[in-house]
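Researcher: Checking consistency across runs. Here is Hydrogenase expression/formation protein HypE again:
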Amino acid sequence: MGHGGGGQLSAELVQHVFAPAFGGEVLADLADSAAVTLGGARLAFSTDSFVVRPLFFPGGSIGDLAVNGTVNDLAMSGAAAAFLSCAFILEEGVELSCVARVAEALGAAARTAGVQIATGDTKVVESGHGDGVYINTAGIGLIPDGVDIRPQRARPGDVVIVSGDIGVHGVAVMSVREGLEFGVRIESDCAALGGLVATMLAVTPDVHVLRDPTRGGLAAALGEIAAAAGVGVAITERDVPVPDEVANACAVLGLDPMYVANEGKLVAFVPPEHADAVLDAMRAHPLGARAAVIGECVAEHPGMVVARTGLGGTRVVDLPLGEQLPRIC
């Protein structure tokens, strides 16, 4: 399970098994989506699989995740998603009414995100060899001229901005999976971020890095960027927006919100001369209303993320080994 968690084990699996087997310059960037040139056009291309349990949770479903997750991967290259493929892997015995609910949620999410489902596939596996419904989606979109967003572009001096509260999606899924009650209803923040990214790029196309902190949470996203660019990242813990209900739930579960997956948030590395304007634009957008500066990119401790604590010290924010909460996307 750890190899699918987005942390150190996942990175080792990609580095030592998949990358050597597949090769190629395009794959080497290991970004959320690949930037490719085809017929003179720059395209973003991404694929993702969704195995969340349960299929329906407060604020969303596997159908919503299947669209928003891939749309967001494309948006992290600055692209507006245009078309998606959609493959359903169904377990023998799953009720057709359940499949219909998932399909309806997926279609509604696609319409909201402004993307078309262009092609698809269906497979059925024997009872006991699946978990109801798994979904794979792939997507393509155009990258605007002048936009070059990738992890390797992080530079010392860049301002690190997160688009809002972290840890919400993971805690929402965990609450219904384990039948836990936290005194308040926590709903997933699952959303398509294409509009928010377009708002940011309207301020300046020179956004260096975008990442959606899904598996492994904000900690993994920052760690991957630091490693890819060979820079350090310094954040201030008290500036990271964590809602009280998420903090309290994590305290009960023994979790660190920094490592909990999100499905409707992004982290951006922005040149300092554009940071204030980009932050203002994000806060004017519904999906960035609680955007906050959480730190900066530094030349010290390359490849490492450190957090300034409330007590005035610092701690290393390690890349997680696996995932605290498996099967939440």
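Researcher: Does this match what you'd expect to see?
Model: One thing to look at in this run: The chain has two domains: 31-142, 151-316.
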